[in-house]
Amino acid sequence: MDSISLIRPDDWHLHLRDGEALRAVVGASAAQFARAIVMPNLRPPVTTVEQALAYRQRIVGALPPGTDFEPLMTLYLTDRTPADEIRRACETSGVVAVKLYPAGATTHSEEGVTDLRHTWPVLEAMQRAGMPLLVHGEVTDPAVDVFDREAVFIDTVLEPLRRDFPGLRVVFEHITTRQAVQYVAQAGDTLGATITAHHLLYNRNAIFAGGLRPHWYCLPVLKREEHRRALLEAATGDNPRFFLGTDSAPHAARLKEHAAACAGCYTAPHAIELYATAFEQAGALDRLEAFASFNGPDFYRLPRNRARIALRRESWTIPESLPFGADRIVPLAAGETIGWRLAR
Ligand code: DOR
Ligand code: ZN
What we know:
Order of helices and strands: EEHEHEHEHEHEHEHHHEHHHEEEE
CATH architecture: Alpha-Beta Barrel
Structural class: alpha/beta
Bound molecules: (4S)-2,6-dioxohexahydropyrimidine-4-carboxylic acid, zinc ion
Number of strands: 13
Strand order of the largest sheet: 2-3-4-5-6-7-8-9
CATH class: Alpha Beta
Strand content: 15-25%
Largest sheet: 8 strands, parallel
């Protein structure tokens, strides 16, 4: 097979940042995807419908002329989010979900939720309206090993939450473990999960191969090979509640190549090619379209895209770095050769 044709995919988990950084990266996602769920972890965070709509305007304004790309906006949940904000979001087309960051879990999560009980009225309103809660699924207790934080989150936070709000629609974002795969697989229709390309392609050895490699550092961190295999099996399998979310998270090269490297892998410019590589390695290229283009819109109850894209078998080298405003950014797997290319 030298080329594959897919319904145009969407990215159900994306960081676009703001200002100069936004202008530097948004075209890359628009060239790959028709729509994206845009994460609200700006500084200050996007906590209101008004802020989300203003941010949406800035994204659309930053698109290269002639590109066709729909940002789907999210609100950043805090201890103080009023339930009324959910009612406003439900009346607003373009704001589609609410993101839960446990306070301290990741980049710009300081204003996240310290105790889920503070958010019960909001969760109740979301449950009633059918609005999905997008969850960064890691506990923040420093006593819990970094590699165990997702598995502990399932037992101590996610399962109790889903018991308290059985009708709440939840997306378990960027899952990284066998435990998460099993938890989502046994759950009902209200639970979906996104999977990144980097968690399908790499295990935690990638962070340490030949030296400490900060461009492979993200949160949740890459896990053991057994977990990567479980994710690959889920992504290529026939459960429609697993779908594509890149978690492409741009940071300037100087902040990644740093004593306290920022978390995040920048995959937007070659995301679908990375996914194709992972699916081909699993002998499951025929499963890519469902994962990338059908399962996400079906879960979000949005129409599937109509246009198509083509991927060609072609060997090419991922650039060493790309412009990023006044800085440079290093995409994941920079300098490496990849075997699929999106036809432009
Ligand atoms: O690696 C990550 N980067 N994980 C997150 O949860 C946040 C993201 C970012 O915003 O940089
Ligand atoms: Zn993210």
